[in-house]
């Protein structure tokens, strides 16, 4: 009986030693954990049939349904480790005055110096299409893939219904 108890105690101690030495606590910062997750992130595509644009967004973002959003306005967000917002809106051409028809703007969010934004403006068919992404500065390297997609965003990708499936048609 003493042998069984001794073996059982040794087994429990061995399990504790293995658990402590292999498990450990994840000492990475939230930014590092998020950056690691972004490496494997899958993107979904939102199609706005009314305004004729598409945007790609990380599949773990959720769509915000706000009553004040009108036609051509959509917002996707993530609020677990940080606050990230990706939104697109379409406004009349008269709202912004610019000689450029396609430009990217970056800066700090008003009154929130810890947050930055990148916005891509495209003038198309007498409207401005604006894709904006808002993020905490500490996460800039972690969200670099999203920033890249915003900067490279294009209007003119059409989706057509083929049965029940949306098929991407590249204009041009």
Any overview of this molecule?
This protein has 172 residues and is of the alpha+beta class. The protein contains 3 helices and 10 strands. The chain has helices at residues 2-22, 30-39, 144-151, and strands spanning 43-48, 53-58, 62-64, 74-78, 84-92, 102-109, 112-124, 127-136, 157-162, 165-170. The strands form 3 sheets. The protein has a 6-stranded antiparallel sheet, with helices on one face. Strands 1-2 form a two-stranded antiparallel sheet. A hairpin with a 2-residue loop joins β7 (112-124) and β8. The longest helix is centred in the N-terminal third of the chain and has 21 residues, at 2-22. The chain is elongated, with a radius of gyration of 24 Å. Mean pLDDT is 83; it is low at 158-172.
């Amino acid at each position: 009986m003493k042998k069984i108890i001794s073996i059982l105690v040794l087994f429990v101690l061995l399990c504790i030693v293995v658990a402590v030495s292999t498990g450990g606590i994840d000492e990475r910062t939230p930014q590092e954990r998020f950056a690691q997750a972004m490496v494997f992130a899958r993107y979904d595509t939102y199609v706005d049939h009314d305004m004729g644009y598409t945007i790609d967004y990380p599949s773990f973002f959720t769509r915000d349904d706000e009553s004040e959003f009108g036609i051509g306005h959509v917002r996707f967000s993530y609020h677990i480790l940080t606050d990230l917002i990706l939104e697109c809106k379409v406004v009349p051409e008269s709202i912004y005055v610019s000689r450029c028809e396609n430009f990217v703007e970056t800066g700090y969010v008003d009154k929130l110096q810890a947050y930055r934004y990148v916005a891509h403006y495209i003038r198309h068919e007498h409207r401005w299409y604006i894709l904006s992404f808002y993020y905490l500065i500490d996460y800039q390297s972690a969200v670099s893939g999203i920033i890249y997609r915003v900067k490279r965003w294009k209007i003119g990708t059409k989706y057509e219904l083929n049965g029940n499936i949306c098929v991407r048609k590249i204009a041009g």
